Request: fold
Amino acid sequence: MTDRPLTYLRLDPIGVPVYSARGLTEDFSLDGDAQLARTVNNVLIDLGAGEDEKYKLTITCSDQQMPALDGVIRGMELTVDCATEFNYMTVGGSPSRPVASTTDDPATRTEGALTFYRPRLTMMVADYRLTHDEAGDVYGWSLDLIEV
Reply:
């Protein structure tokens, strides 16, 4: 048996109480300026400005409690230490985002030719939803975030 925490997720400054994020799902998508189009020769090209891609992230969970979402508003900035691991080639590679290094849990590990790390993202709240199943005493929540 390992001493794995209940969750690796950290949300600063709002916090993640015990029993509020077990079994969570993090769903990442790109939020960049890509403008994909086909040329007259049917070659796919990107007409975007070529700026770095940013992430959209939706965190979803059902548990016995909720994170401290009271007072959270659209546009609020959060620092998110993700539970999801990103990875890169150990030789010649480096993380594309800062590493979630201030947690008590190891945020990096190496396996074969890959280094895995949990990223720390500066994100802005786009929306959130709360649900409560009274009979089952289950609180559900989801948080939609966009990388700054």
About this structure: The CA atoms of residues 7 and 61 lie 11 Å apart.
